[in-house]
Amino acid sequence: MKWIGKSSAVLASLMLTAALTAGCGGNNNGGASASSQPEGSAASGASGLKPYEVVMVFPDAPQKDNGLVQSAINDYLKKTYPEMNMTVKLEPIDWGAWSDKTNLMMASGDKFDLLFTADWLGFQQQVTKGALLPLDDLLAKYGPDIEAVEKNYHDPAKRGGKLYGIHTHQELGGAQGVYLNKELVDKYNFDLSGFKSGKVEALEPMLQTIKEKEPGITPLVAPSFPLEAYYSSSSLDSIVSIAAINTVGTPADDYTVINSFTTPRYMELAKMTNKWYKAGYINKDALTPGLDAWKKLQTGKAFAFVGDMDIVADMEIGKAALSPNGTIKANREMLQIPLSIDRLQTGKMTATMQAISKTSEDPERAMMLLNLFFKDKNLLTLFNFGIEGTHYVLKDGQVALPEGKTTDNIGYYHDIMWQIGNQMLNYTRVGEDPKKYLNYEAFNKKVTSNPSRIFGFVFDPEPVKNELISIDNANKAFVDGLKSGQLDPEENLQKLLDKQKAAGADKVIAEAQKQLDAWLATNGKK
């Protein structure tokens, strides 16, 4: 949930709008046709339903055994839920073709049912152009298992008072901090207590030691920088692009919208990063497209990395722990130290959702199927891992590849469990913490106990869409240089602010404040 990523996602979505036609084709059916209208809920056993194929559209790399898994899912549905009388068609679309193909499908009125969607994949435009069905009534009738875990998190996906997306039940936020090569921490007996302040500045003396005593090792490997992975999460309630509320040193009832580049904390971190760059702590090729920082850690040629943390048990600011995934990715023991734990943010709730297409011929059946993904571990396992014995085996309760198989030749291997259903029902893979999802549940309590000041507020970018595009263009000449330390902020930050202003920054800030004030008034907060 980085502010830079959010900005880019909103702008990308704005530029996709033209691809969705106003009509979006299909029928205007908010419920099933008379011939397929069930008499009761899925839980009570609907009867008299005609056969129906639910088409699931989702982004995924091509899977050789997609058809095999689809047949297994349909056999399972027939055996376990015969009263639903439905089959499933899995229709994955490669990530590279996702936007073009789904926009064309919606514009052409193609028949499909469940659709993965997100704010970073054009959700707002899909709703605006009428491509998605409102889900409130369908959810009330056919989504009891969805409601059991998601009932408090629907507001961010509402537009005009109606719900258009169902959030995947998963971790409700993230944590950001520093990864450290444990071997080097132990070698120099680094004191990690300074991180309890939550400030990334505590890393500096360690970077200096590595620079002086370990030639050939990059002290702080990038991409991923404090200004990208850490600043907004620890300092802002972001709204859109540059518009945000500064949460550092301001009262809890302060709803003043500011430019995120104007806070004292931004300047502090920009100056620090520039200092580290000049001192040789950050790799000079950090902005090279496609650069993989973890590969540098694998070779033992890097010490520290700033980024998103694994969610582990008993996460606290400044508390060092061995990182399970970081250790796997670096092929060496990596410590992780959280410096920021997300507040409950609107953007997280709209980052992974399922929607129902306006062209669905039986939305009830689509919602019934979606509900099953929130209660049925066997169904989730088929979708996420394939067929037991063929695509995976269980070892001590964790998923592993069958003997002699690799991810390249197994025929069905992906990591898209975050796209649908109740993740807490999932198996973990060998190498992951077996208690991963228990950790998620505990972590979620931390996140929900600290909601954003504006949780539930959704900004409509339409009135300032041109300004947002112009601001993004203005940022290109400066933002990467500032976040990597290659530009001195005392010389360049004001130049960036001037270009943002010329691109319409004041209009964006004013529009964000106007919409936020209206939302606050409606919700009795002001």
Strands, helices and their partners?
Elements: H1 3-16, E1 52-59, H2 66-80, E2 86-93, H3 98-108, E3 114-117, H4 123-128, H5 136-142, H6 144-150, E4 158-159, E5 162-163, E6 166-167, E7 175-181, H7 182-188, H8 204-213, E8 218-220, H9 226-235, E9 236-240, E10 243-246, E11 257-259, H10 264-278, H11 293-298, E12 302-308, E13 321-322, H12 324-330, E14 334-341, H13 346-349, E15 353-356, H14 363-372, H15 377-385, E16 393-395, E17 398-400, H16 436-448, H17 465-475, H18 479-483, H19 489-503, H20 505-522
Parallel strand pairs: 1-2, 1-3, 8-12
Antiparallel strand pairs: 3-15, 4-5, 6-15, 7-12, 7-14, 9-10, 10-11, 13-14, 16-17
Helix pairs in contact: 1-17, 9-10, 17-19
Domain PI-PLC Y-box: 402-465
Keywords: Signal
Signal peptide: 1-22
Please report which band the strand proportion falls in: under 5%, 5-15%, 15-25%, 25-35%, 35-45% or over 45%. 5-15%
What structural class results from the helix and strand content? alpha+beta
How widely separated are the two ends?
A: 27 Å
Determine Rg (CA atoms, Å).
Answer: 24 Å
- Label the CATH architecture of the largest domain: 3-Layer(aba) Sandwich
Strand segment tally: 17
Number of helices in the DSSP assignment: 20
Task: Write the CATH fold name of the largest domain.
Answer: D-Maltodextrin-Binding Protein, domain 2
CATH class division of the largest domain: Alpha Beta
How many domains make up the coordinates?
A: 3
Report the helical percentage.
Answer: 25-40%
Question: In one word, what is the shape?
Answer: globular
* Average pLDDT number: 90
Largest sheet: 5 strands, mixed
CATH superfamily name of the largest domain? Answer: Periplasmic binding protein-like II
Spatial order of the strands forming the largest sheet: 2-1-3-15-6
Q: Indicate the low-confidence ranges by residue numbers.
A: 1-46
InterPro entries: Bact_solute-bd_prot1 (IPR050490), DUF3502 (IPR022627), PLipase_C_Pinositol-sp_Y (IPR001711), SBP (IPR006059)
Signal peptide: 1-22
Protein name: ABC transporter substrate-binding protein
Keywords: Signal
